[in-house]
Design a protein that fits this description.
Layout: E1 13-14, E2 19-22, E3 40-44, E4 50-54, E5 60-63, H1 71-79, H2 84-99, E6 125-126, H3 135-143, E7 154-155, E8 166-173, E9 176-184, E10 192-195, E11 214-217, H4 220-226, E12 229-230, H5 238-245, E13 251-253, H6 264-270, E14 274-275, H7 287-294, H8 296-306, H9 311-318
Parallel strand pairs: 11-12, 11-13, 13-14
Antiparallel strand pairs: 1-2, 2-3, 3-4, 4-5, 6-7, 7-8, 8-9, 9-10
Length: 324
């Protein structure tokens, strides 16, 4: 569809209650003095839907996918710079979405998610950057471009056998420990052993109300690298979608850059999420690789720059991985 936030004045501020405040664009069109006190407000209700209220001239408008545009909404879109043709296209695409069963933002019917508290192994201790016996674990994370202090990792150096070579990533939901994954630092097969509750979305506790987007990827280390969410597979379940939609932010899905990773794309489009497939170097397979090569800021910029719902652009981008 379209990104209303990109059309607002550049000087806008996200308030603590989820409203974007800026100089209202409606006042002088309605015979009032132009707003200079940032009294225009817009709030995202979902990935697509929003409401607008001017606290200066009391003008109101809104958008709900699949519903006809009101006169006020058409006027607001015109005042932020859209042409008559743009507005007609938006209305047509919205009505088409309703006719097709609201494919851009389908209702996700799942049971209420509940997680039970779990415990880590008795031998697990927090990773300590000042403990010489933890050097191997620290080196593993640093070599992958991961800040050892950016997440509360645990290790089990006193155990024998393979378990002495693992880094434990705890899973939290609203601050409660609900599972974990063990990442082994050796070169043997089966690098990960996961203990994840059904429907768990890693990284949802990272998300902050002032952030404008939520970035979704496959792996936990990818999510930690850019403070995103990880589905820990190449599919988005109904439970994952329920939790993402509850954040009321636009969602950007970044697939792993291989044939298997591209399997997440169709489901993400069905849910109305944006897809981002940056043109990273050919040896970079995921977000963590990109952060290691380019840094966090450049990686995030590359993700946002190509995020889109255009099926044409997405198909062209993922053709690079079809022959793998």
């Amino acid at each position: 569809m379209f990104n209303i936030l990109s059309l607002l004045p550049a000087k806008k501020k996200l308030t603590g209650n989820g409203w974007y405040s800026f100089n209202a664009v409606c006042c002088h069109h309605r015979g009032h003095k132009s707003d200079r006190r940032s009294r225009g407000g817009l709030k995202m209700v979902s990935n697509e839907d929003w409401t607008y209220h001017c606290f200066n001239c009391n003008f109101k408008a809104g958008f709900k996918l699949g519903k006809p545009l009101t006169i006020n909404t058409k006027n607001l879109l015109k005042w932020v710079g859209l042409t008559t043709e743009d507005i007609q296209r938006i209305e047509l695409e919205g009505l088409r979405a309703r006719e097709l069963g609201d494919i851009f933002n389908p209702k996700v019917s799942v049971k209420k998610l509940t997680f039970t508290e779990r415990e880590l192994p008795e031998t697990a201790v927090p990773l300590d950057i000042n403990n010489d016996s933890h050097y191997t674990y620290l080196a593993f994370l640093i070599n992958r471009g991961i800040d050892p202090t950016a997440y509360p990792y645990y290790v089990t150096p006193t155990e024998t056998g393979r378990n002495s070579n693992r880094i434990i990533v705890p899973y939290y939901n609203k601050g409660m420990l609900v599972g974990s994954t063990s990442r082994f630092t050796d070169t043997l097969p089966k690098k990960y052993i996961k203990d994840a509750p059904p429907g768990y979305l890693f990284g949802i506790d990272f998300q902050q109300p002032q952030w404008q987007h939520v970035i979704v990827c496959e792996g936990e280390f990818d999510a930690i690298s850019i403070r995103g969410c990880a589905v820990m597979t190449n599919q988005i379940s109904n439970e994952h979608a329920q939790q993402l939609n509850s954040l009321n932010k636009p969602v950007i899905v970044v697939p792993d850059q291989d044939k298997s990773g591209m399997k997440i794309v169709d489901r993400a489009l069905e849910l109305g999420y944006k897809i981002s497939i940056p043109e990273w170097d050919s040896d970079i397979k995921d977000i963590n690789d990109a952060v290691l090569r380019y840094g966090v800021a450049a990686t995030l910029l590359s993700i946002h720059r190509v995020a889109t719902r255009s099926k044409i652009h997405i198909e062209l981008a993922r053709k690079r991985f079809e022959k793998e």
